[in-house]
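Something for you to look into today, if you have time. Could you write out one complete protein record for me, on any chain you like? Leave the record below and I will have a look.
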Amino acid sequence: MRTWRLWQVLAGMALLYPACLLAQDELVIPPTDGTTFLNKQIEEDASRPPGRVYVLRRNGYYLWNAILTNSGWVLRIKAEEGPGQKPVIYLIADPATGTFPQHFIEMGEDVYLKDIIMVGFIESMEGQIANNPPRLIRSRAAGFDLVLDGCILTQSRGEHIRLEQATRVVKITNCIFANMGDLGLSNLGAGKPIDFRGTSCDSAIFINNTFVNFHDRVVRHRSSSAALNYFIFDHNTVVNSLGFHGTLVLGWLGRECRITNNLFVDHFIAGADTDRTRQSEFEEPGEWDPRNGLGRMAWVLSVPNDTTHWVVKGNYYSVSPEVQAFYDRHAAEGVLGEGPALTHHICRRLGADSATAFIKELIELANRPRPMVNMAEWYRDPNGGNKTKNTPTPKWVRELHDYDRRPWQYFADTLDCSYSTSTAAYTGAMGGFPAGDLNWFPSKKAEWEVWVTGVEQNPTAPQEFALYQNYPNPFNPSTKIRFRLERPEQVLLAVHDLRGHCVRILISGRMEAGYHEVPFNGSGLASGVYVYKLRAGNQEKAGKMVLVR
């Protein structure tokens, strides 16, 4: 049965972009003439209204020569409507200083990106790979949203997205993340799509994306001090990764984790092994390989708890003949092929469903980069990497050992992760749809979009009534209060001082079920602790927040 929460998440997606990117104050920015820089044009937008959307021309090229920090204002960039190639943005050195920026965006507020291509350096210029940046997007402040739809992100030596502060919502849909990691500049523990570090995220949502060509994990949330409260990983295709420290490393989880309807092809090429270098970051589940007493390798890792609701189903995976031959060559050295998908703890939480959570099938993708077997062999070679990740080293030769690194044009025009309709995976996802990123099956995706909106809207399992901690907190002078209603209710949301006096009424009226967010501006109030109280019907919750002048 299609579940209520899947409907809730996907229905929310349909509302997001009209609200955030369409009904706003648009400013069309022409492509570069070689002397203009998109980041500067955005910074110098002196008349920027609160709803500004920067619109880029299709078939256009743009240059970006310094880190852009959107402190106190929401950054929205999208391609213009209509046909044509998505606009391409290149990271380049500042011509005045020669300094190459470490990334494009440093988040100081919400960021929304739609239908653009971000490239870490100009690939067609000889020698520019030496500037391959550590990352493409980084957070610098807590409590904001990062939303990407229809984008291609390619070329970073570390991770495309690095979140070093708590985020509220991270939503990645219909994107391609490619070419993550560079042994000429970094190590094998780098090279991943998204790194939450140890911070929190209320809702981390990944739907209908393709992740291709990378060293390490798709998601890293390690040594975490706070939870990923809702983690949704649905209908994604993952192809051509060493899986150096795992695939989905989720750390501390909160209410729910859903890993559903995905396709993994050659996603753990390094294999399950008794390799101390790699095992050093498989220890968080507290499960040990009996062969050497170190961390037991699995694709999906978490810090065990008995409260997270797990749903893992409809996933398929494939090992190509080239990768299987690598496993066979090194079996005597302790490589157990692709190894287990799940930890023992997750299997116990799933019960009988764990047996079919991931189904193996030989699947050939229509057009994909070559499996990175050369890199896997180099890593194990005593005269090469010798099972160490502390590179770069002169023993690594890009022309011989790098993965099949392709330019952005390949990912925009040639990559094709569709597969045969005769495979079990083609009808193996929920609803009888293909597993993996449905953008590779456009007609099926159109059917799926109708299907998900037809999910029962009055489910037997209701949403919980919830009031969340305001973001940011402490604040000066503005913050946001978010809550969730399980049914339509008469709502009162008010702010009180510690003496119990009501200082502001933010909402008084009937509201629909679902998530709601309300801004609060403390201008005119003294510094101190305030209590925000939510009453909906006969239910009531309260939270504390700190106004600092």
